[in-house]
Amino acid sequence: MPSFIDRVVLHVAGGDGGNGCTSVHREKFKPLAGPDGGDGGHGGSVILVADPSVTTLLTYHRSPHRRAGNGTPGMGDWRRGTDGKDLILPVPEGTVVKDASGEVLADLVGAEASVVVAAGGTGGRGNFSLASARRRAPGFHLLGEPGQALDVTLELKTIADVALVGYPSAGKSSLIAAMSAARPKIAEYPFTTLVPNLGVVEAGSTRYTIADVPGLIPGASQGKGLGLEFLRHIERCAVIVHILDCATLESGRDPLSDMDAIEAELAAYAERLGDQESDPAVTGRVPLMERPRVAVLAKTDVPDAAELADFVREDLESRGMPVFAVSAVARTGLRPLSFALASLVDEARSSAPVTAAAAQAAAEAERPVIRPAAVGRRRPEPVAEVRYVTHPTEGRVYQVRGDKPERWVRQTDFSNDEAVGYLADRLAAAGVEDELVKAGAQAGDPVLIGALEGGVLFTWEPSLSTGPELLGARGTDLRVDPSTRRTNVERRAEYHERMDAKEAARAQLRAEAAEGLWTDAAWDEGDQR
């Protein structure tokens, strides 16, 4: 199992909101004292927080599925449900958060920087909060919303002041071990360093960090070697140090050609980043190819390497960069190099550009400005968009998409007719039915609210304005549940039908008595009267 992970896919889900409660308050001598159902608790959110004590994403590589706590349902006697607990996930400083499409959601630079990656669901309302002057005793509640669930990619970009770049086995690990307390693996074979190493250097009053980036080779920006995996760790560095191996025995290699090859890879990688990543107003950093360079001629303790270093020094200095000849083994030339790097780091820190976001945040923090919405200049925007689409199983349907209508559908308990009627009232009041009419929908047409998969499909019947006098029993709605109550015309017809049946029966009895089929003294006496 690797000990350093700088990229991981995290599956996060916010907690579900608790359902509301339908309850009627009861007291002595007051069996029906009004609704008292409480609201459900909100679900917890998943929050990423930059923590300086965390250096790797290994924890999330081993357990990538994370979920926040759910809210509890509401209860009677006006008791609200408990909110779900937020899930705080610490990540290293410099972590970039991206969604499934690759769009950057957040760049967590600086301690305590945070972002909510999966918001918890809202708790459902109880029947007490749904009561109004027109609906005094609701017989329904709203359901809690499910928490947001998505996959995010975490990429760690090391935050260091100085980046050491160079060919494999050029002496980067030896140099960082000699200048700091870092103890990277050092061996006499290529690609000894498999992960970036960080070291802290103190030069006078300046304290800065050095990153040992795994060795680069020609073609690293296209995926060769290990360079592509770790080139992003130099994006935030203020100074780039070329470690040039003066004691290499490979044919066709020398310090000048090595530098040209590494610079070509850096230029190719900077081009891949695009214009946005190289804009100082956005990133707050100098573009990668404009940052100061330092050339370090390594392994000068070898006699032939010392002669080669003296030979190429003038050519390197003509390129406008300081040159230092050092030996990590003999520990020569390290002190001047450390102070020179400290000077460049101080200069970079003092002249660091300010991002537009940081400038705006500072201005807002300095002086809050209240800007009320303009009156009479903006037209009300429709709450939903209606399109005529093809459903996989139902054919052509009218699809309604909008945050509010889809949220209202998720909150509705379709087993309760009164809740369905409340949903119809909300949709009509928000103007959804008006948008359906504009789209050409007619009574009886199929309407889908939500996505093609998972949306709610129903047959549309235009709502009629209703009042409290038309509401039925608790938990029912006359528009949803067809009424079986007889009308006055039906009552009169049934009454006359019964009277006609009784008169027919009496006539038959009189006819049988007249024929002498049977005689009843009581009947004769009554008939005579």
Automatic annotation (TrEMBL):
<feature type="domain" description="OBG-type G">
    <location>
        <begin position="160"/>
        <end position="346"/>
    </location>
</feature>
<dbReference type="GO" id="GO:0042254">
    <property type="term" value="P:ribosome biogenesis"/>
</dbReference>
<dbReference type="InterPro" id="IPR015349">
    <property type="entry name" value="OCT_dom"/>
</dbReference>
<feature type="binding site">
    <location>
        <begin position="191"/>
        <end position="195"/>
    </location>
    <ligand>
        <name>GTP</name>
    </ligand>
</feature>
<dbReference type="InterPro" id="IPR006074">
    <property type="entry name" value="GTP1-OBG_CS"/>
</dbReference>
<dbReference type="InterPro" id="IPR027417">
    <property type="entry name" value="P-loop_NTPase"/>
</dbReference>
<keyword id="KW-0378">Hydrolase</keyword>
<protein>
    <recommendedName>
        <fullName>GTPase Obg</fullName>
        <ecNumber>3.6.5.-</ecNumber>
    </recommendedName>
</protein>
<comment type="subunit">
    <text>Monomer.</text>
</comment>
<dbReference type="InterPro" id="IPR014100">
    <property type="entry name" value="GTP-bd_Obg/CgtA"/>
</dbReference>
<comment type="similarity">
    <text>Belongs to the TRAFAC class OBG-HflX-like GTPase superfamily. OBG GTPase family.</text>
</comment>
<feature type="binding site">
    <location>
        <begin position="327"/>
        <end position="329"/>
    </location>
    <ligand>
        <name>GTP</name>
    </ligand>
</feature>
<feature type="binding site">
    <location>
        <begin position="212"/>
        <end position="215"/>
    </location>
    <ligand>
        <name>GTP</name>
    </ligand>
</feature>
<dbReference type="Pfam" id="PF01018">
    <property type="entry name" value="GTP1_OBG"/>
</dbReference>
<dbReference type="Pfam" id="PF01926">
    <property type="entry name" value="MMR_HSR1"/>
</dbReference>
<keyword id="KW-0963">Cytoplasm</keyword>
<keyword id="KW-0460">Magnesium</keyword>
<dbReference type="GO" id="GO:0005737">
    <property type="term" value="C:cytoplasm"/>
</dbReference>
<dbReference type="Pfam" id="PF09269">
    <property type="entry name" value="DUF1967"/>
</dbReference>
<dbReference type="InterPro" id="IPR045086">
    <property type="entry name" value="OBG_GTPase"/>
</dbReference>
<dbReference type="InterPro" id="IPR036346">
    <property type="entry name" value="GTP-bd_prot_GTP1/OBG_C_sf"/>
</dbReference>
<feature type="domain" description="Obg">
    <location>
        <begin position="2"/>
        <end position="159"/>
    </location>
</feature>
<feature type="binding site">
    <location>
        <position position="193"/>
    </location>
    <ligand>
        <name>Mg(2+)</name>
    </ligand>
</feature>
<feature type="binding site">
    <location>
        <begin position="166"/>
        <end position="173"/>
    </location>
    <ligand>
        <name>GTP</name>
    </ligand>
</feature>
<comment type="function">
    <text>An essential GTPase which binds GTP, GDP and possibly (p)ppGpp with moderate affinity, with high nucleotide exchange rates and a fairly low GTP hydrolysis rate. Plays a role in control of the cell cycle, stress response, ribosome biogenesis and in those bacteria that undergo differentiation, in morphogenesis control.</text>
</comment>
<dbReference type="GO" id="GO:0000287">
    <property type="term" value="F:magnesium ion binding"/>
</dbReference>
<dbReference type="InterPro" id="IPR036726">
    <property type="entry name" value="GTP1_OBG_dom_sf"/>
</dbReference>
<keyword id="KW-0479">Metal-binding</keyword>
<dbReference type="InterPro" id="IPR006169">
    <property type="entry name" value="GTP1_OBG_dom"/>
</dbReference>
<dbReference type="InterPro" id="IPR031167">
    <property type="entry name" value="G_OBG"/>
</dbReference>
<keyword id="KW-0342">GTP-binding</keyword>
<feature type="domain" description="OCT">
    <location>
        <begin position="378"/>
        <end position="462"/>
    </location>
</feature>
<feature type="binding site">
    <location>
        <position position="173"/>
    </location>
    <ligand>
        <name>Mg(2+)</name>
    </ligand>
</feature>
<dbReference type="GO" id="GO:0005525">
    <property type="term" value="F:GTP binding"/>
</dbReference>
<dbReference type="GO" id="GO:0003924">
    <property type="term" value="F:GTPase activity"/>
</dbReference>
<dbReference type="InterPro" id="IPR006073">
    <property type="entry name" value="GTP-bd"/>
</dbReference>
<keyword id="KW-0547">Nucleotide-binding</keyword>
